[in-house]
């Protein structure tokens, strides 16, 4: 797959971004007018670089190499409206924005800005929606079940502050949840990336479910967290207990991209099912998720079949536990290995509740449209294998994304993830997840990290969006 490289440019690269200035004189005074280069794709921009797009100036808030579809107004995680550093004397950036919705309105509230503040302006894109003197505003007259992204800026006689963004969807969506729909369940990994306390995240976001990763093999066909932490009594069990005590439930994920996995190590379907049963008995999950990836499982058809036949036994012994298989995709749908997995599941009569694709690390440029296209390709594969209608296929489908910057530097912003969630809801998909809660923290310009998203965002913003699935 094509890799998209993010250039890490020094401050001197501001010159490359096209910053220049010219001085003009008026009677009795002089002033400096800044001229900025037009935004262009495939161009490295440093933090602080200023460009012009459709007559509006934008300042880069994280280093990146631009691509088609990443125009400044489309990716607020990369650009903020306005050129250069804020003028001395303008207010500080408003605090994080919280939202409350009705069928036709979205109420916003935020932390007060520092400095001298005359009031606050609330924008939707470049359109001014309202101006207030306090730290709250309500936007009314909206459509039922519609999504909106707002930017709050403080202002005074000197100018405007840097904006603070928030996305929300009005209530009143009339599409009933399809049978078998699972709660939005982002991945949480207790062995990596400064894992947060799940109860803290639940309280802050309203999320009720997590996908706990990953069960691997420990010394043969023996399940353990990460292949080395015990099923009970350890940090994973403590996190699961905290989730359940807070009224939530868990999905347990087996496999993943790397590590010593059960599929290759368990010699028979019965042995594989027995290992899975140990986990079910220890944890009591609502869902078991099998991330079938890489050459050892996804591209090894002997192991694929062993897992599929093992899942038949798992379902027979645990009819109330949902079974999910998760695998990679191209931008147009499953590749040959994914199509083979779907067709073989049908041929072997494996009762899989949900087929989830991972639409990232696939050379994406417009992550919303690429995700939709990949999902439609999955729908086609399911219809071809099972003879489903569109609605039946959607009801067996899920999406598992990657928040912020992916391994290949693909960008999924909170606004894009909201679009993906709303599309999934509108089509009746039954699973939504992302990798990972550990990364659901801001670190603009930080690149791909285990404990933050690499972009500007509010803490737990992707989890909050996922909770609305």
CATH top level label of the largest domain: Alpha Beta
Shape: elongated
Unreliable residue runs: 1-35
CATH superfamily of the largest domain: Glycosidases
CATH topology of the largest domain: TIM Barrel
Determine the fraction of residues in helical runs and give it as a percent range: 25-40%
Q: What is the radius of gyration computed over CA atoms, rounded to a whole number of angstroms?
A: 24 Å
Average pLDDT works out at: 87
Going by CATH, the architecture of the largest domain would be: Alpha-Beta Barrel
What is the rounded distance between the termini? Answer: 30 Å
* Count of DSSP H/I helices: 11
Tally the structural domains. 3
User: What percentage of the residues does DSSP assign to strands (E)?
Assistant: 25-35%
- Structural class of the secondary structure composition? alpha/beta
- Describe the main β-sheet briefly: 9 strands, mixed
Structure summary, number of beta strands: 25
What does the model show?
The strands form 7 sheets. Strands 15, 16, 17, 18, 19, 20, 21, 22 and 25 form a 9-stranded mixed sheet that branches. A 4-stranded antiparallel sheet has the order 11-10-13-14, with helices on one face. Strands 4-5-7 form a 3-stranded antiparallel sheet, with no helix packed on it. The chain is 25% helix and 28% strand. Residues 1-35 have low confidence and may be disordered. The protein contains 11 helices and 25 strands. It has helices at 198-205, 235-245, 262-265, 269-283, 294-298, 301-317, 336-347, 367-386, 390-394, 414-427, 461-467, and strands at 19-26, 29-36, 44-45, 50-53, 56-60, 64-65, 79-81, 97-101, 106-110, 119-124, 127-132, 136-139, 147-155, 164-169, 187-189, 209-217, 223-225, 249-256, 287-292, 322-328, 354-358, 397-402, 404-405, 411-412, 431-435. α7 runs parallel beside α8, α8 runs parallel beside α10 and α10 (414-427) packs parallel to α11 (461-467). It starts with 18 loop residues before the first strand and ends with a helix. With 469 residues, it is α/β, with parallel strands linked by helices. A hairpin with a 2-residue loop joins β4 (50-53) and β5 (56-60). The radius of gyration is 24 Å and the shape is elongated. The longest helix is centred in the C-terminal third of the chain and has 20 residues, at 367-386. The chain has 3 domains: 11-81, Carbohydrate-binding module superfamily 5/12 (Seminal Fluid Protein  PDC-109 (Domain B)), CATH 2.10.10.20; 97-169, Immunoglobulin-like (Sandwich), CATH 2.60.40; 187-467, Glycosidases (TIM Barrel).
